[in-house]
Amino acid sequence: MASRIPLVGLIAAAFALATVAWGSEEPVPPLPTPETPEHVTGEQPYPFDSADPRDEEEDKPPIELPESVAEKLSLLSPEEVEFLKSKDARPFTGSEEDTVEALEERTPEEVKAWVNAMQLVVEHNPYKEGRDSPNIPLNMASPEFNAWRLQRPRSMDPKREPGPVSLGRYDGYGGPPTFGGLPMALSREDLIAGEVDVAILGAPLNMGSGWRDSGERATVDLRLLGRPIGNRDQYVQVDAGEVLTIVDYGDVAVDNNSTERSMKHVREIVREIASTGAVPMIVGGDHSLEYPNVAGLADVYGKEKLSVIHFDSHYDAWWGGTHLIDHGYPVYRLINEGHVRAADYIQVGLRSGGPDKTGFNWMREQGMRYHNMAEVEQRGWDAVLDRVVAEASEEGRKLHISFDIDVLDPAFTVATGTPVPGGMTMREAITIVRRLCAESNVVGFDLVELHSALDPTYKTTLNSAHIIKACLTGLAMNREGLTAEHYLSPLSSEHAIDDYYGDQQQFLDATKAEEEAEDESAD
Amino acid sequence: MRSHNLMRCALAVLLWASLGSPFEKAHAEWTVPDELLEQVSALSDEQADFITSGAALKFMPEQQLEHELATRDAQSLQALVNDLISLSAEMAYDPERDMGAAPLNLASRRFNRGTLPTPAPLRELEREPGPFSVHRYLYPRSGIPTFAGAKVAIWPEDLVAGNVDVAIIGVPSNAGSGRRDAGNGPNAMRATNTIATPDLQSLVEPLEVLSVVDYGNFSVNWLSTELAIGHVADMVAETAGTGAIPMLVGGDTSMLYPGVKGVARAHGEGSFGLLHLNAHPDAEQHGDHTVSDRQSLFLLLEEGIVDGSDTVQVGLRGPEVSVESLQWLRGKKVRYHTMAEIEQRGFDKVLKRVLREVDKGPDAFFVSIDVSVIRPTEMIAAGRVAPSGLHIDEVTRVIRHVCAAKDIVGFEITDLAPMLDLSRLSVLNANAVLNACLAGIAVRKSGLDPDYIHPLVRDHGQ
Fold first, then answer.
1. Chain B contacts in chain A segment 259-278 (CB below 8 A)
2. Would you state the pLDDT for residue B119?
């Protein structure tokens, strides 16, 4: 936080900058091009296989129908009889015995109507060329087609040096609200010139969630109530705002009538941030955002080079619906497009009704590591915490943390789209997020599904701000080398005037030696 | 150079007349002030054209552009103009760069799931057609919430068998440009059961005069208005085809389009007028989507589903009211009444004018209201809330009268987002609006004059 950088430092920085003639700005290196197609252009179809492997039914052989029901089938064509025996009819008719029983209850006329109704449903459900639109056409004739995402050129405003801008009049304070009162940056030039470590980006996407209104209010309310962001953490005695250069990177434009259309632009801005070496911290907005966030990081760090830890009460690897993205799909889509290997996915806190056994079996086969609340119930939080942190830190891989606030118990975050009781406490969440950001190689973070309209007490928004703070603290600890397993400040974690717990003798000796040295120098 | 400019201006005027875009309009009216011509002449031909044609006014108001011209040095001015030219080039759709259509999962096994009412032979239980009660007790209003505590109908044959006059239907879409939660509107209105109370003016009991049912919800695609409208229009048309009046409860205001379209399919395009109470004109012409709340009235008029001259709009205000939108409505012969008119003339005078316009219109009318028309103190849960506005009593007066005076072919209330009002006052008022039309329809069916007042309520007469 600029306001807490010592004044001397500011002056020094000002001198350093003054020596660079900012008329001759260094050319900013071009953005990396993504390895995989970002999104379709024109009216093209989705360029990846989109069938859900979990939908593949085993090839069930047709059932046999006994001679006793032959009369009931007398009005059916051979194709209709074949349909009735096939696996397509099983969802309607059940087993062989159920089918025979149902046939016996019906007249031949009723049997024919019954079979035709099933055929109608089977025919209706999948996509059919010519009958169904293969896509959602936009109004391509609109003269303002891209108005929603065009960026304001720097030349429209008075010239200024590139770099983070403090909006406040009084040593950084007193300006319009930014995340944590941090300075603002709006372009790659600002990030590079300011050697920014973390850029917090609002993403007001308002489409995918159970309850809506996650979007516009969430990113703004986090600015109004997000004072803890970048502040001192007492547990570890680190002030992230002093250790790191953190900026408010504004909001990314989204089309709140089409998630699919918003994805490319979010991905671009995330890529823009990550390409400078800064950690993008995206706050949203619905969980569809995990897809462009991780894809944008993969554009910079390489395909299959990232691990993702997904905090959520839902597994978000659903697939197979009409749409290719919503807040239940990002995990599957990332894996399907090859940005992340399933085996590099770690999931924490799952407890919603689904997935079923098919979903869990699929995750296991893919090598996905999941840690459900059932594991916490069985093993206790501490055991699961250590296991998760160890897995996330394996091989020093780059890590993205996607934190859906519904992983927390609704007692802490009721203002979310799809709350599920029985979740993590804030005490648990702060610890695990701080530890991950300190002990692993975190290159991206998102916090999603905050629905401010459901939050008249501001509790959910405040708790969300503290989760963001926990990661910033961790990133600052990592920078300071405080990466030992579960580091806590010896000074703030107990008074240590005596060795009550029997493990503080070293600290006592050290502080005693310091005091003696001070006394001597005073004499 | 001068004549060149004049030609450009003339062209721009023509363009404006044909397209009606505000940007083209700006082209037509603005010219570079004489004292700034020198600045412009220092630019390249392309850059100068960009300024003189008014194209730069897409990006900043005239005053700002003149300030930039007056104060910038040549280099900085060129940099600005070049940036704006690049932006201009990026504004329109480019098939090589932009997504023109959002792809769908064609491999999905449930691509169309949720839009096929269960065919009769596959229904689990057989029952005789007709509306049925969900209440255990003789005098209902408990347990499962239905609109007006009314009986439930599920299939069109239920409507026919019950000779149903009014089918109240939820259309829980949740997209559009406003704050959200309109998807919960129908259930919130069911759960706060103040619909179908006796009409105070006539003492008519709507449920005694009319056969009213809760016809459930029509399925909407959660993530795409475009994919939702086809099914909604089909279902509305089917419902209206049974002779019942569909009373639709949104959902966001994008559902006005399929609601009116469905009724037109049953009764004929242009066969009825539209009374539309809304703070927003919803006449966006150049939207980048093909359907949305902001385009709903535009689409209805543009496609000829209702005639502009049979359309009466009341309560306009808020950010979308502009020279452009009002000009367009005028061009379509829409009778619009803004809050400025109401402020100037007083509500009673405007009401009189509105009712006269409706009287002169077709015999049949579709009545629709976006709850944003009501002032926020009485309707804070409007998805697209706008300050000021009509009182609930004013709204119910208009609606009750028109529903009593005209042959109502459809009614729709949209954009109640109940989550935004912890006090639930907004739901009460939304129900009052629906009630006003239901009462009006009942008064008409009773054969009473729309303005009939029961002697007992007029005065105690002692």
1. 259-261, 264
2. 94
CB atoms within 10 A of CB B331: 12
Letter for the amino acid at A139? Answer: N
pLDDT of residue B132: 95
Q: Which residues have CB under 8 Å from A145's CB, separation 6+?
A: A138, A139, B91, B92, B93, B98, B288
What is this structure's pTM?
Answer: 0.90
Question: What per-residue confidence (pLDDT) applies to A36?
Answer: 62
Q: What is the DSSP string of B218-263?
A: ----TT-HHHHHHHHHHHHHHHHHTTPEEEEEESSGGGHHHHHHHH
Mean pLDDT along residues A66-90: 95
Average pLDDT, stretch B13-39?
65
**Residue found under tokens 């009939």:** B452
> Is B80–A156 a contact, with Cβ atoms under 8 angstroms apart?
yes
Q: A147 and B288 in contact by Cβ < 8 A?
A: yes
Bridge partners (DSSP) of residue A512 are none
Q: What are phi and psi of B130, to 5 degrees?
A: 135, 155
How many Cβ atoms sit within 10 Å of the Cβ of residue B243?
12
**ipTM score for this prediction:** 0.87
Facing residue for A324 by CB, picked from B105, B286, B292 = B105
With CA atoms as reference, the chain A residue closest to B75 would be A155
Give the per-residue pLDDT at A453.
84
Q: CB-based contact (8 Å) between A33 and chain B?
A: no
Indicate the Cα dihedral angle B79, B80, B82, B88, nearest 10°: 160
For B73-121, how does the pLDDT look when each residue is reduced to its tens digit (9 = 90+)?
A: 999 999 999 999 999 999 999 999 999 999 999 999 999 988 999 999 9
Helix or strand holding residue B392 (H, E): helix B392-405
- DSSP-derived letter for residue A130 is T
Chain B environment of A321 (Cβ under 8 Å): 105, 108, 110
Question: What integer is the mean pLDDT of A198-220?
Answer: 82
In degrees to the nearest 10, what's the CA dihedral of B279, A221, A214, A152?
Answer: 70
- Strand B166-171, strand B212-217: pairing: parallel
Q: Tokens for A376, please give them.
A: 């916490």
CA-CA distances (angstroms) from residue B346 to A286, B199, B340, B351?
45, 26, 10, 9
**pLDDT tens digit string along A488-518?**
998 999 988 888 999 888 888 888 888 899 8
Nearest to B228 by CA among B273, B152, B293, B276: B293
A146/B91 Cβ within 8 A? yes
Q: What are phi and psi of B325, to 5 degrees?
A: -70, -40
pLDDT exceeds 90 at position A254:
yes
Closest CA to A452 of A437, A443, A463: A463
- Chain-chain contact of B96 with A147 (C-beta, under 8 angstroms): no
Do the chains contact at B101 and A135, CB–CB below 8 Å? yes
Distance, in Å, from the CA atom of B401 to the CA atom of B230, rounded to the nearest integer, reads 32
If we measure between CA atoms, which residue out of A35, A451, A447 comes closest to residue A201? A447
- A324 in contact with chain B, both atoms CB, cutoff 8 A: yes
Question: Measured between CB atoms, does A138 come within 8 Å of chain B?
Answer: yes
If we measure between CA atoms, which residue out of B192, B260, B296, B219 comes closest to residue B412? Answer: B260
- Return the DSSP state at A422: S
Strand A238-239 and strand A232-233: the pairing is antiparallel
Q: Residue A139 is nearest to which of B174, B179, B290, comparing CB atoms? A: B290
Supply φ then ψ for residue B370, to 5 degrees.
-95, 125
> What integer is the mean pLDDT of A383-399?
92
pLDDT band at A7 (very low <50, low <70, confident <90, very high): very low
DSSP H helical ranges for B268-367 = 296-302, 323-331, 339-345, 347-360
Tokens of A160: 């200024």
User: Is residue B52 within a helix (H) or strand (E), and if so which, with residue range?
Assistant: helix B45-52
Question: Which residues are CB-contacts of A152 (< 8 A; sequence separation ≥ 6)?
Answer: none
